[in-house]
Design brief:
CATH architecture of the largest domain: 3-Layer(aba) Sandwich
Largest sheet: 6 strands, mixed
Radius of gyration: 22 Å
Helix content: 40-55%
CATH superfamily of the largest domain: Periplasmic binding protein-like II
Strand content: 15-25%
Order of helices and strands: HHHEEHEHHEHEEEHEHEEH
Distance between the termini: 65 Å
Number of strands: 10
Strand order of the largest sheet: 4-3-5-10-6-9
Oligomer: single chain
CATH topology of the largest domain: D-Maltodextrin-Binding Protein, domain 2
Length: 305
């Protein structure tokens, strides 16, 4: 019988790429991880790992076993959900991850509702970029999280996760009120402007660069900022133009004009595969859906003038 804990290490090696990274994720030493993977290889009876230079990768058998490991881990999540559902009342810690604009706009109402309806739940929120969500869920540092991507920069689904749609947002071009723009192709009209973008490696940065490339140019990035309030303040100060999704574009400074674009940000509620029926996960998802609907009903779209 294969050891599930060793399967988790193999799965994480497939995602993280190095034994050192797996060791950091689990607070093990690299030597301990190597020993556990060697034991798993003996249990399997076939080579699962192969060394290329200084790196250790997976053999075809190792890749196949990782696919089965995802199914096994999802089944265990489902079993845990079924056991929790048999108890009376919800209790325990639920760790929720979300990106900054959702923490500011959607999450507070969801937390209030959860606290009112399930007072025995201990809710813990972590703000993080969606690029960090899959690893945090796999490593059980989060239980539920909001992640997003953009239609111009889609992210492949993670086989370890399940996700359900939450929100589709318009993306706006933010410029100063006196900036001329071409309604037919607003992004291309900014090809000679300075840009304010998220930090390299974030999805917002990737989206903005991709949108400019689709418009036929490479942007000149003058400032990096990951909080959309700061981004809009820089735009208002004449420091550049930016792309801002709907949640981040609420209450813009007076001098900022928001031009709606045919670009969309797609937000989903994510959790470990098989955990969707866990009562606490389901309660969080329901609260997030309700909070999002209430938020959208209670505000107007940003003005484009």
């Amino acid at each position: 019988m294969l050891d599930v804990r060793r399967l988790v290490l193999l799965r994480d090696l497939a995602h993280l790429g190095t034994i050192a990274a797996v060791a950091d994720a689990h607070a093990y030493t690299p030597s301990a991880v190597s020993q556990q993977l060697a034991a798993l290889q003996r249990e399997a009876g076939v080579p699962l790992l192969e060394r290329t230079g200084r790196r250790v990768g997976l053999t075809p058998a190792g890749v196949a076993l990782v696919r089965h490991a995802e199914t096994v881990l999802a089944a265990l999540e489902s079993a845990d959900a079924a056991l929790v559902a048999a108890r009376t009342g919800l209790s325990g810690t639920v760790r929720i991850g979300a990106f900054p604009s959702a923490v500011r706009t959607l999450l507070p109402a969801a937390l209030v509702a959860l606290g009112r309806e399930h007072p025995a739940l201990d809710l813990m929120v972590t703000e993080l970029d969606p690029t960090a969500v899959p690893a945090a869920l796999r490593e059980r540092r989060l239980d539920v999280a909001l992640l997003h991507d953009y239609d111009v920069a889609p992210v492949p689904p993670d086989p370890a996760l399940d996700a359900e749609p939450l929100l589709t947002e318009t993306v706006y071009l933010a410029v100063t009120a006196d900036t001329p723009f071409d309604p037919a192709d607003p992004v291309r009209a900014t090809r000679d402007a300075d840009w304010v973008m998220g930090s390299p490696g974030t999805l917002c940065h990737t989206m903005a660069v991709r949108a400019c490339q689709l418009a036929g140019f490479t942007p000149t990035v003058r400032h990096h900022a990951d909080d959309f309030t700061a981004v809009l303040a820089l735009v208002a100060a004449g420091q550049g133009v930016a792309l801002v999704p709907q949640l981040g574009a609420e209450n813009p400074p007076p001098r900022v004009r928001l031009v709606p674009l045919p670009l969309r940000r797609l937000t989903r509620i994510a959790y470990r595969r098989g955990a969707g029926r866990h009562p606490a996960v389901a309660a969080c998802a329901a609260a997030l859906h309700a909070a999002t609907a209430a938020h959208l009903d209670g505000r107007e779209a940003p003005a484009s003038g």
